[in-house]
């Protein structure tokens, strides 16, 4: 069959994206606890600063999780496109042979 795209290459790319999504999701969740600093002293300013740093860390982790989710969705779209192209070409070949 003649393909406009190479299913094996798209499948390999989808697998790579899925692996990267899993790796980045694991890294984002593993780092969350490390980004919550204790206050430097027992005063109100130190507590506020610690809360601000923790909020910034939480936002950073949320962006990492969002990025890994987008990679996972992209991987799924690539897999679906590959399967669709293979099925479409098989149906076209079957119709052409009739």
Question: Topology, pairings included?
Answer:
Layout: H1 7-31, H2 44-96
Give an overview in words.
This protein is mainly α and 98 residues long. The protein has a domain at 44-98. Helix content is 80%, strand content 0%. The chain is built from two helices and no strands. The protein has helices spanning 7-31, 44-96. Helix 1 (7-31) runs antiparallel to helix 2. The longest helix has 53 residues, at 44-96. The protein is rod-shaped and about 85 Å long. It starts with 6 loop residues before the first helix and ends with a helix. The mean pLDDT is 87.
Mean pLDDT over the residues? 87
The proportion of residues in beta strands is under 5%
In whole angstroms, the N-to-C terminal distance is 16 Å
Low-confidence sequence ranges = none
Report on the biggest sheet: none
Helix and strand composition category: mainly alpha
Shape, principal axes of CA atoms: rod-shaped
Task: Please write the string of helix (H) and strand (E) elements.
Answer: HH
Helical fraction equals over 70%
So how many helices?
A: 2
CA-based gyration radius: 23 Å
β-strand number: 0
Would you summarize the structure shown here?
The protein is an all-alpha fold. The protein has 2 helices and no strands. The two termini are 16 Å apart.
């Amino acid at each position: 069959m003649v393909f406009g795209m190479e299913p094996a290459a798209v499948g390999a790319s989808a697998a790579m994206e899925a692996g990267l999504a899993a790796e980045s999701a694991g890294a984002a969740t593993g780092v969350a606890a490390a980004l919550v600093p204790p206050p430097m002293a027992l005063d109100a300013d130190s507590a506020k600063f610690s809360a601000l740093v923790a909020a910034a860390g939480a936002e950073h982790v949320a962006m990492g999780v969002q990025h890994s989710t987008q990679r996972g969705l992209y991987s799924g779209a690539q897999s679906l496109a590959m399967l669709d192209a293979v099925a479409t070409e098989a149906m076209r070949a079957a119709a052409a042979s009739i």
